[in-house]
Design brief:
Blueprint lengths: L9 E5 L7 H13 L4 E4 H4 L5 H11 L2 E5 L5 H13 L3 E6 L13 E4 L2 H13 L12 E2 L4 E2 L11 E4 L4 H16 L4 E4 L8 H11 L3 E4 L5 H12 L4 E6 L15 E3 L2 H19 L15 H14 L15 E6 L2 E7 L5 E4 L6 E2 L10 E5 L5 E5 L7 E2 L2 E2 L5 E3 L5 E3 L5 E6 L13 E2 L7 E3 L17 E7 L6 E7 L4 H12 L6 E5 L2 E2 L16 E6 L9
Parallel strand pairs: 1-2, 1-3, 3-4, 4-5, 8-9, 8-10, 10-11, 11-12, 15-16, 25-27, 26-30
Antiparallel strand pairs: 6-7, 13-14, 13-23, 15-17, 17-18, 18-21, 19-20, 19-22, 22-23, 24-25, 26-27, 28-29, 28-30
């Protein structure tokens, strides 16, 4: 995490803004954490205006950790804590003894205190036990739960949205009116109060991150609702607010944002169509429709701008293999770099169909071949969509419908084509090593890739990984050349392509393996060659060299 010059080594403080004992609480927290060199940041003293929520999100992200006092059921505090959870920032949660915490937080590391002297002792003990964390953790490590949590990598569900309130009678009436708009897009509701699987907080995160968007009715929202809404805001999940005119208070952090406001159900039905359709069009654009949605919701620019802001933050120095910045796919046609693709939040679809995000006009590419998905925690996955010839990730054939995580330096290949993709990040692309037929990244070995598109895999071998890396010995200077082929290619075609790619003089050549000259119609498969085996390029005009 970069050190922001404006924040220094600071922590964010969230608590109810009432005069009662506010200075005493702040003094205790400041005395303990100040002894470690940290300075407090109070949103009420430094932030104001319509961009309050945006500034709060940025400060929570940039400060080293946050402290939230949950002693009162204050919606702003729970919203801010949810934002910190959505951003996966370190948290200290405190509350007075006797505070009724929502079930989702019960059993978690909330510091309960009897008085300010007790709070001081417990904060000192927490700091001696290693808070705040100083070591870089795994991306799946939840700072609040202090463990690796698989909910951090939840993929968005294309057909679900999340209802954040538990007032069933209200939602029964509202959903009767909202439902038709959502069913047209094959969307179904998931309720925050539905049966949970595993720890409640992890289940809440899973529901939030898997949803296309969240709906919150401000009049019926409780602490869990605002915690989940904050988690959606921090997790870059779109959100829509509803409220009843002159009845539902709006938390100060959410003031200035448009919402669907109504006086009665009849009024709600009359006002619903344009705002709801406009919101849905921004969240899930209709293909080919463009930007013609009506009645835009102002919260859309917020979450878009916040996502862009997060992408713009420079990343701290990381180990060579760690991802730096945003993942992108670098497309190669043979050995020529032809395109670069940044993965948007909705992912990318690859295939031969004109409806795909990336159209690949190759004979052995399926209409919908594979897709790359991006989670809201910025993890990336690849999924083969049941393609006829398959998708190879680092030489391993992917099972259809099973998602595999992508990492910097991975290679994606489509059998029977010259197209492949390098998984890259913000680092400069490597220079080609010598000939353009070589690709050297420092992560991937320099290889000559032999592609013979007019030779598809035999039908009985289509479900097998048939890529093979071999080493050839050049007869002129005994230089070793690593090349990758499909094991069903004829050796004569492999040799011809290899001779052309490395620029050997025009002569008649043959492959030699274990002192035997190889016929052109034999294959690596029939010769039982294995990964890393060596072959010799022998000229028929000169005695072939001995095998190494």
């Amino acid at each position: 995490m970069p050190q922001d010059p404006e924040t220094g080594i600071q922590y964010f403080v969230g608590h109810r803004l009432t005069p009662e004992n506010i200075d005493d609480l702040r003094e205790v927290i400041a005395d303990v954490l100040g002894s470690l060199g940290y300075e407090p940041f109070y949103a009420d003293k430094a932030l104001e205006g319509q961009s309050l929520l945006s500034k709060i999100c940025q400060r929570i992200f940039l400060t080293n950790f946050s402290v939230f006092d949950l002693s009162s059921a204050n919606p702003n505090v729970y919203l801010e804590m949810g934002i910190a959870l959505g951003l996966n920032r370190p948290i200290i949660a405190i509350a007075r003894d006797g505070t009724s915490l929502p079930p989702v937080l019960q059993g978690h590391n909330v510091v309960m205190y009897a008085d300010y002297s007790d709070l001081e002792d417990k904060l000192l003990r927490l700091c001696t036990e290693g808070f705040p964390p100083t070591k870089r953790t795994l991306p799946d490590h939840c700072h609040f739960c202090d463990r690796v949590c698989d909910s951090m990598a939840t993929m968005p569900d294309e057909n679900s949205y999340l209802v954040l309130d538990n007032y069933k009678l209200l939602w029964r009436d509202l959903m009767r009116l909202i439902g038709p708009h959502l069913s047209q897009r094959q969307l179904h509701p998931v309720y925050l109060t539905e049966q949970s699987f595993g720890p409640l907080l992890c289940d809440m995160r899973r529901k939030v991150l898997s949803s296309q968007f969240a709906i919150c009715h401000l009049g019926k929202a409780n602490e869990s609702s605002f915690l989940a809404l904050g988690m959606a805001i921090g997790g870059e999940v779109p959100w829509l607010l509803l409220s009843k005119k002159h009845e539902d208070p709006v938390p100060s952090n959410l003031q200035g944002f448009d919402r669907i406001e109504y006086a009665s159900l009849a009024d709600f039905e009359e006002q619903l169509t344009d705002p709801m359709n406009g919101f849905l069009e921004m969240v899930m654009p209709t293909p080919g429709r463009g930007d013609g949605a009506t009645a835009p919701i102002q919260s859309r620019p917020f979450w878009t701008q916040f996502r862009d802001w997060l992408d713009s933050i420079p990343h701290a120095s990381q180990p060579p293999q760690a991802t730096r910045g945003r993942i992108r796919l670098i497309r190669y046609d043979g050995q020529r770099c032809s395109s670069k693709y940044i993965i948007p939040p909705e992912g990318l679809l690859f295939g031969r169909s004109s409806e795909c995000d990336v159209v690949l006009q190759e004979q052995y590419v399926s209409l919908r071949h594979f897709r790359v998905l991006r989670t809201r925690s910025r993890k990336y996955f690849i999924e083969d969509l049941g393609s006829r010839n398959g998708t190879l990730l680092n030489g391993t054939r992917l099972s259809a419908g099973v998602r595999a995580m992508l990492s910097f330096g991975n290679r994606i290949k489509l059998p029977g084509t010259r197209t492949w993709f390098a998984v890259w990040d913000d680092r400069p692309l490597p220079e080609a090593a010598g000939s353009q037929a070589h690709f050297s990244t420092g992560v991937l070995p320099p290889v000559v890739t032999i592609e013979i598109p007019d030779i598809p895999p035999p039908a009985h071998l289509r479900n097998l990984d048939l890529s093979l890396i071999l080493t050839a010995l050049n007869p002129s200077d005994f230089q070793r050349i690593t090349f990758e082929v499909q094991a069903y290619y004829p050796m004569g075609r492999i040799l011809s392509a290899l001779v052309d790619s490395i620029g050997l003089p025009p002569k008649k050549y043959r492959f030699k393996v274990a002192d035997r000259l190889i016929d052109d119609d034999e294959t690596p498969l029939s010769l039982e060659l294995k990964e890393g085996d060596s072959v010799i390029i022998a000229s028929e005009e000169t005695p072939p060299p001995d095998s190494p």
